[in-house]
Amino acid sequence: MPQLNPNPWFWIMILSWLTFSMLIQPKLLMFTLTNQPTNKTTPTTKTSPWTWPWT
To answer: Is residue 19 pLDDT above 80, yes or no?
Structure first.
């Protein structure tokens, strides 16, 4: 079965991984965020128990 022969597919995988890690990844990491993340405090809400009509 030709799928089991790793000879051509291994080099394609290595070449694509190297392309991603050497060319594409540094370009993506150069982007800066427009809005810097900030710590947000979540408002606490007061919950009331449900009153069941049959109790």
So the answer is: yes
Q: CA 18, CA 12: separation in Å to the nearest integer?
A: 10
With 0-12 / 13-18 / 19 or more C-beta atoms within 10 angstroms meaning exposed / middle / buried, residue 4 is exposed
With H, G, I as helix, E, B as strand and everything else as coil, classify residue 51: coil
The kind and range of the H/E element at 36 are none
Total residue count of the chain as it appears in this document: 55
What are the structure tokens assigned to 15, written together?
Answer: 């070449």
Handedness of CA 33, 27, 29, 17 (dihedral sign): positive
Put simply, whether the predicted model's pTM sits higher than 0.70 gets the answer no
- Exposure of 26 in the CB half-sphere (CA atoms within 13 A): 5
